[in-house]
Design goal:
The protein is α+β, with helices and mostly antiparallel strands and 359 residues long. It has helices at residues 23-32, 59-70, 101-107, 127-131, 160-168, 261-271, 277-280, 304-307, 310-315, and strands at residues 33-40, 49-54, 77-82, 89-92, 116-122, 133-141, 147-155, 181-187, 190-195, 213-219, 231-240, 242-256, 259-260, 284-289, 292-295, 301-302, 332-336. It has 9 helices and 17 strands. The relative contact order is 0.09.
């Protein structure tokens, strides 16, 4: 029976939509619509774009919509929740998230009708592959001693050799170089460890407590790829006035059993091509043992017994004595600079510091 004022709604049965196959579905979709802002994680100034979505959408359905908006593939996008106290990206959202878009916003406290926002990141590999790997951040130091930050995604069970193979994809090696890489752990501008290629990746996972620890990838100098039976590598660090004020890039240097200090000086100057001979003559060489500094005279000769413990000598040849040991507890060669190094900030925050003036 039809009454005055009735509204008739007609839908075609030969058409099907994502959320409104019937009239009831259409009005349910209308009730569940929500506007979401998506911003590029790598661009802080990105105003983003708004998309009207349905709160019942799954992760994969949202990824399809965003992929069409940014001309990408759904499996090449990663989403991030915003931080509650700052307008920047927070934790990544797992692609295996089984809830709806409504569940996603409720999971981090956006239960009110406040504007909804998510961050996205374009990927070079599929999101499923990315989530099965670990993110390893390290620094590439080229032959000009210039640093470049590398972000490597590696499987959890890889070795150092496989990690270095991944690093080769992001760096450019000189044609005249050795083409061989090594991984070092650097702490407070001193070399702590040099990892052999067979070591498992799990042995090098960085500790959050050691914020001054970094991992460095470098090309092995050609002369260090051909070590003789009496050759060994020693750790070298730069300092000014006190051995507890190290700076610049520490490095490994090849010496031969019984080699004179003058010979080492001459060869080291050849490595520092950007330092004049007059400036290098001002450097003072010292042997640092258990926190004690011993200045080296011109008649000093390098012997493995001064740098390598007897225990390490008994377990491996001196050509490999620098591998997989804690070098910070061993003697090291210090280069004391006459001029005070430029100050480097202790802080790594992006924000400017807040000054508080007492009245």
């Amino acid at each position: 029976e039809v009454f005055d004022g009735d509204i008739w709604v007609i839908h075609r049965t030969d058409l099907s939509g994502k959320f409104h196959n019937t009239v009831d579905d259409y009005f349910r979709d209308l009730n569940n619509r929500i506007s979401v802002q998506f911003c590029d994680k790598n661009n802080p100034a990105d105003p983003g774009f708004h998309v009207v979505l349905n709160q019942k959408m799954t992760y994969n359905e949202v990824a399809e919509v965003v992929a069409n908006c940014i001309d990408s593939e759904p499996n090449l996008i990663q989403f991030f929740k915003p931080q509650s106290h700052r307008d920047i990206a927070g934790y990544a959202i797992k692609s295996q998230f089984e809830g709806t878009l409504k569940d996603l916003f409720m999971s981090y406290g956006q239960r009110t009708k406040s504007p909804k926002k998510l961050f996205y990141l374009r990927l070079n590999i599929a999101i499923s592959e990315l989530e099965s790997k670990d993110h390893f951040r390290c620094t590439w130091l080229n032959k000009h001693r210039e640093e470049t930050v590398l972000s490597l995604y590696v499987a959890k069970n890889v070795t150092i050799a496989e990690l270095l193979d991944e690093a080769k994809k992001q760096i450019e090696l000189a044609p005249e170089g050795s083409g061989k890489l090594r991984l070092l752990e650097v702490y407070s501008y001193r070399i702590h460890r040099v990892f052999s290629n067979g070591v498992s990746y799990h042995n090098i996972q960085p500790s959050m407590a050691q914020q001054t620890t970094c991992y460095r990838v470098e090309e092995i100098p050609m002369e260090e790829t051909r070590l003789g039976a009496k050759d060994f590598l020693i750790p070298v660090a730069h300092f000014h006035q006190t051995i507890f004020q190290c700076f610049n890039h520490p490095f490994l240097f090849k010496v031969t059993e019984g080699e004179s200090l003058q010979s080492v000086r001459t060869r080291m100057l050849e490595r520092f091509k950007d330092i004049s001979e007059k400036e290098f003559e001002k450097y003072k060489f010292s042997l640092i043992t258990h926190g004690r500094m011993t200045p080296l005279n011109d008649d000093f000769t390098f012997n493995s017994s001064d740098f390598i413990t007897n225990v390490d000598k008994d377990t491996k040849p001196i050509t490999e004595a620098h591998l997989d040991v804690f070098l910070h507890s061993r003697p090291w060669l210090g280069l004391e600079h006459a001029l005070k190094p430029p100050k480097r900030s202790r802080y790594t925050y992006v924000e400017k510091p807040v000054k508080i003036h007492n009245q």
